[in-house]
TrEMBL record:
Taxonomic lineage of the native organism: Bacteria, Pseudomonadati, Planctomycetota, Planctomycetia, Pirellulales
EC class: lyase
Spans traversing the lipid bilayer: none
Single GO cellular component term: cytosol
UniProt entry keywords in alphabetical sequence: Lyase, Metal-binding
InterPro entries in the record: Aldolase_class_II_sugar_metab, Aldolase_II/adducin_N, Aldolase_II/adducin_N_sf
Keyword ATP-binding attributed: no
Protein's name according to its UniProt entry: L-fuculose phosphate aldolase
Gene3D superfamilies recorded: Class II aldolase/adducin N-terminal domain
Organism: Stieleria marina
Keyword Ion transport: no
BP GO annotations: pentose catabolic process
Domain (Class II aldolase/adducin N-terminal) ranges: 12-188, 231-404
Length: 430
């Protein structure tokens, strides 16, 4: 549940969230609307006919519980369906509506994405539904959508329109919307390369009930090295979110501090909003007091313990590489010299290996194979620095996207072994 003491004003919450959705290219200048219902029953909503890429807090409109309107602009023309959803679902306090390309594709095919692609999408998205078409702005559309939400749905595809997602706060609604859109994009890409593999109940349970046990300790004064690594982790996690290599609810990034300690992103925190003080120090079996380390912390620790040359690790869900992870199609990176030199041969780790506390995940990466696909759970990438790990993550995703695109053109031609041998000699790849 959300913090009962949310101190962010609805104007700022809506403005900042819309800016993020627009930057992520999940809506257009004219499309989409956000709303929040406050404790007084007033509904704060984005305005009609105002540039979504240049929204200010003064543009946000308040529709009072008595029906009066306070604002510089009229409320969104879709206000009727926002009001209808709130009336049908008292537990919903915030709504996101937009037209992200992937989910529009599902809407015009009259389908709903299957979120069993990977555990985080399934757990974050909640129950998904489909609402029949009605003209935008009409009472009929409001009825269709509200009726679907009344069935317990948390996200709804609108026939030939877009998507609506609800939550108990705007941050929660945004996270559901982002995970929903990510599942849709991944499915579209995966269907271009092979048969999609979905998770069964047992596999979902394995992921959702894994635990990471650490005792807590109070660390001493941070060294300059620690301060710099905290800064780098925040910077590259933020960049990863903005480049859609990470999503706000999933992914972990760490950096080795010394032989027994590393810094890692926390669990259950929005990745793009992390600050240096949010990063968690893990030392042996202890974690920094007052913070919860990523649930992948033991997997990171196992890799550091087995591979002294590894100085940074990222677990992530970039769409195209994740598309390979949810199929059984191998990702051959022998496409261009950069891809092979940076990644070598990318392996596929079996489902759930990273959730075990036996250290087996460390067997799937090494200095010679710095990246691996994780079946139905994205990728793991290692590096000699935070920058190196991030760079390899970018190269991995770019390579996966190029291979998928190439399949729409013709047969993919991998570089022959003679070229690989030449690259190994030229770049001293052992």
């Amino acid at each position: 549940m959300s913090d009962a003491r949310n101190l962010t004003h609805p104007r700022d919450d809506i403005m900042r969230t819309m800016d993020r959705i627009y930057r992520y290219r999940m809506t257009t200048t004219s499309g989409g609307n956000l709303s929040i219902r406050d404790s007084a029953g007033d509904i704060w909503i984005s305005p009609a006919r105002v540039d979504k890429g240049n929204l200010t807090r003064k543009d946000i409109v308040c529709v009072r519980a008595d029906g009066t309107v306070d604002g510089l602009h009229p409320p969104s023309s879709e206000f009727p369906f926002h009001k209808a959803i709130y009336e049908a679902r008292p537990d919903i306090l915030s709504i996101v509506h937009a037209h992200p390309v992937a989910l529009v594709a599902f809407s015009i095919c009259r389908q709903t994405p299957n979120s069993r692609l990977f555990h985080q999408a399934y757990s974050v998205c909640g129950k998904l539904g489909f609402a029949p078409y009605a003209c935008p702005g009409t009472k009929e559309l409001g009825t269709n959508i509200a009726d679907t939400f009344a069935q317990g749905c948390d996200g709804v595809i609108l026939e030939n329109h877009g998507v609506v997602v609800g939550g108990d706060s705007l941050p929660q609604a945004f996270k559901r919307f982002e995970a929903f859109e990510f599942a849709g994009k991944t499915l579209i890409q995966a269907n271009q390369i092979g048969e999609v593999q979905y998770l069964d109940d047992t596999q979902l349970e394995l992921a959702m009930h894994r635990s990471v046990e650490f005792d807590s300790f109070q660390p001493g004064v941070a060294t300059g090295t620690e301060q710099e690594l905290r800064r780098q982790l925040c910077e590259f996690v933020r960049r990863g979110c903005r480049q859609r290599l990470l999503i706000s609810t999933e992914g972990s990034f760490s950096a080795r501090l010394d032989a027994n300690s590393f810094l890692i992103t926390p669990t259950q925190r929005d990745r793009e909003l992390l600050r240096a003080g949010d990063i968690v120090l893990v030392s042996g079996d202890d974690r920094e007091a007052g913070k919860l380390a990523s649930r992948a912390a033991r997997a990171h620790q196992a890799i550091y313990d087995k591979h002294p040359s590894v100085q940074a690790i990222v677990f992530a869900h970039p769409v195209n590489a994740t598309a390979f992870s949810v199929t059984e199609i191998p990702l051959d990176v022998r496409t261009i010299p950069e891809s092979y030199v940076f990644l070598r041969d990318v392996q596929r780790a079996p489902y759930g290996v990273q959730y075990q506390n036996d250290g087996a995940i460390a067997d799937w990466v090494s200095e010679k194979t710095p990246a691996a696909l994780l079946q139905n759970d994205g990728v793991v990438v290692t590096g000699t620095t935070v920058l190196d790990a991030f760079d390899r993550l970018e190269v991995l995703e770019s390579t996966a996207e190029a291979v998928i695109n190439a399949k729409a053109i013709g047969e993919v031609s991998a570089m022959p072994q003679s070229v690989i041998n030449e690259l190994c000699a030229a770049f001293d790849l052992k």
